[in-house]
UniProtKB/TrEMBL annotation:
It comes from the Bacteria. Keywords: NADP, Oxidoreductase. It comes from Paeniglutamicibacter antarcticus. The keyword Oxidoreductase applies. InterPro entries: ADH-like_C, ADH-like_N, ER, GroES-like_sf, NAD(P)-bd_dom_sf, Quinone_OxRdtase_PIG3. This is NAD(P)H-quinone oxidoreductase. NCBIfam families: quinone_pig3 (TIGR02824).
């Protein structure tokens, strides 16, 4: 039996619950590939799982980690078109904090030549979240205006670039001027410091009173009323995070008057077929931009495997812009 190093959560709590353990090296099943992990990306879901409030979905590994990059170590039965040694990145429902991970081949993309393989670890979860919500769900189009809350985060950094590339006007919120400057440098057209000004008031000014066609929201309850207020006619609010709570009152009348929609999604719990569709859309929409260099992977900091708890501490501090990456 071959073993590998992995990280598990020993109980629920702060970064101190992370522990390095020896686990069995996975064997790829039919339709799967085994990836030798070069690096994994941190996501807020990892932190929520660490705190014990976001358990892995049924059937998923208890090892955390929703995205990796690496090289193909071996392929399972029935896998064609991908071979050992190829540089890849993958979307996972768990298991990324390890030296090896097995994943259905439909959730794997080849990393373009010009892209650093370690940086590519932070691509799949954010790209899949952004492409599925902005384009497949909310139908963002050229000429639309989109408001991105948390513009300087991992999701926000990718969303800014993909929305700009699609020809949308992009507004962001963030907690300080440094983060706003970072978003503007990524291509955002306007930034709102939500600690200094009311984001709804400012959004209406920046859109000449028209409001926005799409909102990608990571705050939830606390922003619901203001988000509905700034939606344009036929607009869509997609809630993907609950950093400001889950329960709020909704003025359905305001929604009806605008023929607007409010929806929520999670990526991790979607059935495999849906995830494969999303990854195919990422291949179409985001991978070419990555290959030509117009989409940048915004990596804030890399940590070595033994310092994964420090990486979680840094994530918890909220000081980061873009992604935090760990190399096993
Ligand atoms: N539903 C899904 O499928 C899915 C998938 C992936 C991620 N997510 C969610 O998306 C969110 C972002 O994930 P991430 O990986 O990008 O995390 P991240 O890098 O930590 O970014 C989170 C951002 O939220 C911002 N924020 C927090 N409170 C805010 C507020 N009141 N107003 C505006 N911005 C606020 C923070 O920026 P400031 O310092 O500027 O406040 C931070 O930049 C998380 O809530 C995560 O759970 C959902």
């Amino acid at each position: 039996m071959t073993m590998m190093r992995a990280i598990e959560y020993q109980g629920a709590g702060g970064p101190e619950v992370l522990a390095e353990v020896a686990r069995l090296k996975p064997v790829p099943g039919p339709g799967e590939v085994l990836i030798k992990v070069e690096a994994f990306g941190l996501n807020r879901a990892d932190v929520q799982q660490r705190k014990g409030v976001y358990p892995p979905p049924p059937g998923a590994s208890d090892i955390p980690g929703l995205e990796v990059s690496g090289t193909i170590e071996s392929v399972g039965q029935g896998v064609a078109g991908i071979s050992e040694g190829q540089r890849v990145c993958a979307l996972l429902s768990g298991g990324g904090y390890a030296q090896y991970v097995a994943v259905p081949v439909g959730l794997v993309l080849q990393v373009p030549e010009n892209v650093d393989l370690v940086d590519a670890a932070g691509f799949m979860e954010v790209a899949s979240t952004v492409v599925s919500n902005l384009f497949l769900e909310a139908g963002l189009e050229q000429g639309d205006t989109v408001l991105l809350h948390g513009g300087a985060g991992g999701i926000g950094s990718m969303a800014i670039q993909l929305a700009v590339a699609a020809g949308a006007k992009v507004l962001v919120t963030a907690s300080n001027e440094e983060k706003i400057a970072y978003c503007l440098a990524l291509g955002a057209h306007g930034g709102i410091n939500y600690r200094e000004e009311d984001f709804a008031e400012r959004t209406m000014v920046l859109t000449d009173g028209a409001g926005v066609d799409v909102i990608l929201d990571v705050v939830g309850a606390k922003y619901l009323a203001q988000n509905v207020r700034v939606l344009a006619n036929n607009g869509t609010l997609v809630v993907i995070g609950l950093q400001g709570g889950a329960k709020a009152e909704l003025n359905i009348g305001a929604l009806m008057a605008k023929r607007a929609r409010v929806m929520g999604t999670t990526l991790r719990a979607r059935p495999l077929a849906q995830k494969e569709e999303i990854v195919a859309a990422v291949r179409e929409r985001a991978l070419p931009l990555l290959a030509e260099g117009s989409l940048k992977l915004s990596v804030d900091r890399r940590f070595p495997f033994p310092e994964v708890a420090a990486a979680h501490e840094y994530f918890d501090s909220g000081r980061h812009t873009g992604k935090i990456i760990v190399t096993p």
